[in-house]
User: What shape does this take?
Amino acid sequence: MRTLKFAAALAEAIDEALTAEPKITLIGAGFGGLAGGQFFNPLREKYADRIKYPPISEIGFTGIGVGAAMAGLRPIVDYGTATFSYEAIPQIINEAAIACSNSGGQTSAPIVFHMLHGIRGAGGVQHSGSPHPWYWNTPGLQVVEPGTPADVKGLFRWAALKSRNPTVFVDHARLMDDEGEVPDGEYDIPFGQAKVERPGTDVSIIAAGIQVPRALAAAATLAGQGIQAEVLNLRTLEPLDKPAILASVQKTGRVVVTDESHDNCGVAAGLAAIVADEAFRHLKAPIKRVSTMAVPVPYAQTLEDYVTPTAERIVAAAKAVMG
Amino acid sequence: MCHMLPSDRAVNLLGMMLRMRRLEEQVIHFAEDHQGLIRGHFHVYIGQEAAGAAACAALKTEDYIYTTHRNHAHVVAKGGDMGRVLAEIIGRLDGYCKGRAGTFHVAAPQLGVLHTSAIVGGCLPLAAGTAYASKIQGNGRSTIVFFGDGAMEEGVFYETMNISQLWGLPVIFYMENNAVQPGERAGRGSPTSEHSAKALSDIPRAFSMETHVVDGTDLEAVYDLVSGLVEKTRRGEGPFFIESRTSRWPGNYGNFPKSVGGDTDVSWAWSPESAPEAVRKWEELSDPVLLYARKLLEQNSISREGLLDLDERIRREVEDAAKFALNSALPPAEAAVEFAYA
Assistant: This one.
């Protein structure tokens, strides 16, 4: 095991995947956004002939990636900030996501749509968005939301090298500088395998993406108050590891679901519905959701902090379900 | 540049156009004569057959085409089986997509039709992407994307034009302008209430794209033009833009085409006055099937009897195809949840 930054682990995955698979072609190569230049710049040089830098034409270059995927390449399209993927929504939802079903399984589009989401700090309303609930609402897409450096490496490798379907890969911009243990060598994390990051008996905190480190911080605080929280890292929303969710709920009987996205038809809402639907008999208290507050993300730091689903809010929710 | 096709090839292409015509007439019969068989709205390709037949004749099976809500006849022109196309249109298990696609999105990857989009302009960047893949793979495959003039109202059109030209993608943008007055098909103007450009072909030229305007009812003109451009795309050259100008068939009533003059009678090729009034003028001036039949009759590439025989044979093919489709089973209900993921 080594300790790596999230951005370094992502860069390692990209490097290994490009070396292993000549069918991979990059359209855009923002990856870390404003962070991680030291890790991504060498890749931009090393693989210059595998990267196309498109004009500011998200729907155009997205469709080109999708068409190339249908014809046998494995494109990785990078949007930088996730909100720009809204400009490409028709090609992601109306074309890439439906091709396999529409053709009765004959055509597939193994493409990765990589984007940075979330409240990054002073992004303002249009650079702080979290579109992954939109994509989770779309059959035909896979949605990946890594929470740790170890996750991002294994999940990105799987998306780039093994997946046979279009994958929306959302990294939280604030995770790029996070550090964590990363296994040595090449390894994949197949989609649909959640991970218990911290076992506990009193309350399950079911988290995705940046809410994983926030949930772990919350669990540490709760432990100091005598509450043993279990933290489940989902890693992928589609496919979703339902058995892992239900097993944790069965064990603790109390649930906080948390994601950095809005509540309405959001990730936390979808997860809460599954728990209510399939594990109601195990519940000792109502399910609590911790999400981004229902307002376009404002700019000033005080306002931004207020709407963020922080570790403190997770602690408060966990204590509420403990009664 | 315009040279005559050898007569057997010419007759084959006339046969393909007739097949496309009879297929679409059958679709309208499904809608008009069978209660509940076609449950939604649909579109047909009647009046544009020369374009699809000639353009696809310039391609090989492994080349790609992308098409639109008017896809039925394109798939047949690319080598599709009429029974499987009709089965798809009425949502049957033997359809090219197992009944999942229906009239709007017939796809047949084995024929180079990877995906079909009914979203206006939806296939434009996909086609550029397939061409991008061909360029990287160095496989010499050509891509043609058919779309209507309406797609030029969409933003995605402009992004795709720009990137395709910047990246030199081997794709042919085949724009079917099907609303041109007969006397103006040889011209270039397209005054519409939806577009501020006076000539739609000025737009790709503004992107420095090699652009051609062709009478889309003239099968040999289309074939000459497209086969020349296809050869260039095989060498990795492109992109190219074609405006193909046809005149709207009178039965084209928006979302529900109607059989206004009955099925086309090939004898109208030599006696246009016997066509019903509702379609007489169109059959005389604008029907690509009859225009080409008339031409082949005049140059003795086919006789009247030969044409009637050819038509009879194709009618039987389409009848058999319709029977095949009607006899095909509906997909089992529980299959609905399959195939979302590969």
